[in-house]
Amino acid sequence: MKQTENYIWTSFLNSGKRHLILTGTHRAGKTTRFQAFCAHLKDMGESLPGITTYAVPGKCVMLKENVSGAEVEIGRFYPENKERPMIEVKEGFSELGCPALVRMAEADGEWVSIDELGFLESNEQAFQDAVRMVFEKKRVIAVLRKQSIPFLNELKEREDVFLVDLDDYHRKVGCVIMASGMSVRFGDNKLFAEIGGKSFLQRILELTEGIFTKRVVVTRSKDAAEYCRNQKVDVILHELPYRSDTVRLGTEYMEDMDGIVFCPCDQPMLGRESLLKLRNAFSFEGKKLLRLVFAEKAGMPALFGKEYFAELKNLPEGKGGSYLLKKYKAEIEKIQVADKLELFDIDTKEDLEELKKSAIFL
C-alpha cells in the first residue's frame, strides 16, 4: 500500500473498531483506497466475498456478486424525470442483492467487501436488513456515497465503525505540550522528575513523536527549552505568568493547523494509542471537541478544532482549556482510555511514589 493507504489502515487498526467505511465526494479516491485495502486483505489470506455496484452511463446501475460473477440491474436511468432520474429496480435486490449478502454472511473468512451503498438502497428494507446482518456476523470494508440518507447515516454512526471521510482525512493536527507549570507543590522542576529511568519531559516527547503534523513545547524552564532544542523539538520559552498565556502562545503557534491537542507533561502513564484515538476521531470522523476519559472520569489531553482557536487565544486571565471544556460540555466527544492510570497526573512527590507502586515501567 502507498503511504496514504498505510496511514489510514494503521489508524483503523489502532482504533480497535470492527468495520472500515470509506466515504467522500466524487473523485475523492474512495475506489482507489478501497481496492488497495481489499488487495491487502487478500494478501493476508482473506477470501473476501463481496458485492460491487457500478454505473453504465446513461443507462443503469448494476450489482455484481464478486465470487460468482452474477450481475443484475438494480437501478435504471430516466433522464426525462428531472426530480428522480434514477429509479431502483426492486427485482434486482430481491433476486441477487439479498441472497448474495446472505451467502456472504455465511461464508468462510472474517471479512466482506461492499462497494458501494447509496440512495438506491434507501427504500429497500429487506436489502438493508441483509446488510445489517452482514455487519453483525462479519467484519466489513465498505464504500458509502457521501449523502445524508437515514440508512447510510445509521451505518456511519455505528459504534463499531471506523469512518474515513476522504474529503477530510488530511486535516492537520498540532500538539502543544504544556510544560509551563511552576512545580510549586512538587518542590523542584517536575519536568525532569524520573520514573522508569526517564524524565517526564523525555517521556512526553517520545510519546508524541510522529503522531502530529507538528508539535511545540511551551515552557518557562530554560533547562527544558535547551533539552527540547537538543532533541530537535520546537519550543517556546516565555516568562508570562498565567496558564492562559501558555494556551495562547501554543494556539498562535498552531494557527495553520485544523486542530490542536493540548498535552500535559505530568501524566507519565498516558498511552500512545489514546493520542492516536484523539487524532483519528478528529481527522477521520469529523469530531470537533474531544477529551480523554476513563469511564465517566474526564481528563486530559483534549483536542480543539479550529472553531475554538479564537477563544483559546482569549481565555480569561489564569484559565486554561478546561474553561472551554466546561463551557461546551455538551459538545465534547469522549475518548475512552484503556487504563485509569493514563489520566493520573503528578502534582506532588507523594503522587509520584504512589504511581510507582501502581505501575510497572519497562
Protein model, in words:
The model has no long low-confidence stretch (mean pLDDT 91). The chain is an alpha/beta fold and 362 residues long. The chain has helices at residues 3-15, 30-43, 90-106, 125-137, 150-156, 200-208, 222-230, 243-253, 272-283, 309-312, 321-327, 349-358; strands at 19-24, 50-56, 60-65, 71-77, 86-88, 111-117, 139-145, 161-165, 173-179, 194-195, 198-199, 214-219, 235-237, 259-264, 289-294, 297-305, 333-336. It has 2 domains: 3-165, P-loop containing nucleotide triphosphate hydrolases (Rossmann fold, 3-Layer(aba) Sandwich); 173-358, Alpha-Beta Complex (Spore Coat Polysaccharide Biosynthesis Protein SpsA, Chain A). The longest helix has 17 residues, at 90-106.
Key features of this structure:
362 residues; alpha/beta; Rossmann fold; Spore Coat Polysaccharide Biosynthesis Protein SpsA, Chain A; eight-stranded mixed sheet
CATH superfamily of the largest domain: Spore Coat Polysaccharide Biosynthesis Protein SpsA, Chain A
CATH topology of the largest domain: the name is Spore Coat Polysaccharide Biosynthesis Protein SpsA, Chain A
Number of helices: 12
Q: What's the architecture of the largest domain in CATH terms?
A: Alpha-Beta Complex
Strand order of the largest sheet: 5-4-3-2-6-7-1-8
Determine the N-to-C terminus distance: 33 Å
- Total number of beta strands: 17
Q: Major beta sheet, specifics?
A: 8 strands, mixed
- Average pLDDT across residues? 91
Strand content: 25-35%
pLDDT < 50 runs, ≥5 residues:
none
CATH class of the largest domain equals Alpha Beta
| Secondary-structure element pattern, one letter each | HEHEEEEHEHEHEEEEHEHEHEHEEHHEH
Please indicate the count of domains. Answer: 2
Specify the helix fraction band.
Answer: 25-40%
What is the approximate shape? elongated
Radius of gyration: 25 Å
